[in-house]
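Fold these two proteins, one after the other.
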Amino acid sequence: MAIIQTLDKYELHAQFKAYDRDYYSLDGYQAMIDMFEDMGTNWELDVIALCCDFNESDIEELRQEYDLNEEEYPEDSDVLDWLNNKTYIIELDNGAVLHQVF
């Protein structure tokens, strides 16, 4: 028998904070919840695995992280298109991007 608990973004944030892994905004935590809900199955929370698999970055951080120069990728949409062709991304309401690390 398993016990299943549904978390909201504040409870998920608390779980990450308890592991000293508070790396995401509330928008990021909500995006994670929505992503798992869209998959339609129950998931066991593994904070460490999620931290290894997903980053939340703004466009400038993405440019630096993946060495994307502004001449080749002048628009924010160019950066997002490039990243979307490489991995799973979720654009957040706060302007950041939650993306699966590759």
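Now the second one:
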Amino acid sequence: MTMKVLMLALGIGSVASCTKEPLKNMTAEESRIYITDHDSSVNFSSFKTFSIVDTVSIIEDGQLSGKQLTAWDASILNAVAAEMTARGYIAVDRSQNPDLGVNVSRIYNTYNGVMSYPDYWGGYGGYYDPFYWGYPGSSYYFPERYSIYQITEGAASIDLLDLETASTTKQIRGVWNGLIRGTGVFDVNNAPSQVKALFDQSPYLKANQ
């Protein structure tokens, strides 16, 4: 067992050395990830009508911070409505008791970190011979210093809600979710293709004709 694993690892290494590194040659489109999930107990063909929100929710670090309607927001709302209509669902106003409700959100999560420069530079400086600068036998030294960095990740989320049973259960149940992450998610030109990719992964989203 161990020998087989070792041989496989060596084989993978040999192949990788002869090809381009995929992570270094990915386009922005190839970097995007599309994740869909749904309630498998739901018969989506039983729904006939839907209504979609008129603004996009902004969720920052788990908290709703507001709602907006930017050019990207309008584009993704239109794209979702078009896909739902193409699947046989009928768009109605929210006052007309739609079977499905559609929420769209932009999600941002911010992470903070600390970098210690003595630790960072300690290894790097040793790679270059001090003799190059005319000081053989010397060592590199960097003053102790710390920097705080911040990274913000963004994603787009689309939720389908079962409004048909909400009046009796007193709960608005989510029955489908699509999540988009990666480079260029919030580029207005990418919205239609991104929404299509999510729906293409969900062939069960189809109303009875």
